Amino acid sequence: MKPKYGAVVLRWILMWIFLALLTPSLTYARQAAVYEAYRIMIENRKGGGISLSGDQGNTWQSVGKVTRPATHVDKSGFPRSSQAGDLTVCEIAADHILVKITQNYEDRRYRYGRGTLFGLFSLEAAHLQKKYRDDNTMIYTDIPAGSGIFGKYAPLLGSRFYLANGNRLAIPQPDFVPREGDQIIIIVESYVKTIRYVVFENRFGGEITAHFTDGDTLIVGSVLRPVEGVGRFIGTEFLGPGKVRQNHGSSIGISTSRRIGKKIRSLNDYRGGFQIVTSEHIYDSELLPARVSSQWMVVGPALSETGRYIDQRYPLFSRFITPGMRVEARIDNKSWEPMPEMTGDEKEAFLPRQLTKYFEARYVRRGLTHIRLINPHSN
Prior knowledge:
The chain is mostly beta strands. It is built from 4 helices and 20 strands. A hairpin with a 5-residue loop joins β11 and β12 (207-212).
């Protein structure tokens, strides 16, 4: 006896639901429950406070001061700011934070427009900026690079910003320009299911895997070209070796540099690191060297997600990375160890010959085989 038509349809539906639950795209969706982790308040005036709250604004802890307020906006933000959402944090770094207000299509040189931005400088970045020219689109602070809101408690990419209006939060208008006295609130949301660390297999076709605190794993991308060298990337001198330097919707910067001291002859002597960028980002004009250079790792979506982009997606390019996040290395597939300290322009720094020279008494056969980004909030 043949089964009824309705039973056959039901069987097919159940089978497709089962298969769909196994796909990475829907697994991403299952991680989508978020909660407010903390919020940041910045009083945009000289001497204004910078504070953190872990209880939705009921109590605040001071983490720094404003040394100079922002009074203008930058209508020509960096190219990838065009992809970020309006009224969100679009780039975080050890020395600065950038917030997108809206999209600007006025400049016809840019087909997809640019973000209209304002932001914050760390203490060191503010000092360096004053040597060249003042930037009134940035709030200058006394918070050291790589710490506080420029470190573990940076606003995650995609965090929304508001203006305090008494006891209420107001949504800024598209023509918003920061004014002296504004109270800016950034609400930082995190995913309920916490990632402990993310591992990159540093080889062509290598998997990028998120490891959660409950023991689950999820493949979140693939390596399309491994990193083999280091270069003089700006800002790496503010940290130390094995630290995340910056993150926006298409890029992660890693420092292999030592931290700068008080007496500096040349910043280039202290700069060293590499970048992890998306396969779409390398086609931007400002990233022309990344198309052929070994100092950029190029990543894309998981191999099971062909036809999709990884830009602006959790966890690599949204709501996970923080500046100063610890980065570890595996060499020759052995145990995890600190990232080697390397500066300057060395295109083969992570290959066997150069690593053997670096370690002196250690013979390296395969070079850098894995990279791990460790979540400081996972404990």
